[in-house]
Specification:
Blueprint lengths: L1 H13 L7 H11 L2 H12 L14 E3 L3 H10 L2 E3 L2 H7 L13
Helix pairs in contact: 1-2, 3-5
Length: 103
């Protein structure tokens, strides 16, 4: 429904054109919200990390900026790092100090 509303707004804001041309624009807008997550997880997987959205005992690093995650990481004695940490590790292909990339 959100996509259809966005297409509707785009169509009437521009005042002309074929509605079918707006779907790619809409989808790219929606997916751009997830762009950083997708890029980070694929880079981490390239470096042989196992990425998951399930938080359990096997997690060693929690990549997040959310305050609730900070509490969990502290309680479980896990590394909590900002998503930029993955980029910092990716380019030189070596682990960077986690303390330099706190959320």
């Amino acid at each position: 429904m959100r996509v259809l509303k966005t297409v509707h707004e785009l169509f009437f804001d521009s005042g002309c054109g074929d509605v079918r041309t707006y779907f790619p624009k809409c989808c790219s807008r929606i997916l751009s919200d997830f762009g950083d997550f997708i890029r980070s997880s694929s880079r981490a997987e390239e470096m042989k990390a196992t990425c998951t959205i399930v938080i359990d005992f096997s997690v060693t690093h929690l990549v997040s900026t959310e305050s609730e995650d900070c509490q969990w990481a502290e309680q479980e004695a896990k590394f909590l790092v900002h998503p930029r940490w993955i980029d910092a590790c990716y380019f030189p292909w070596r682990r960077q100090p986690e303390d330099d990339y706190l959320p």
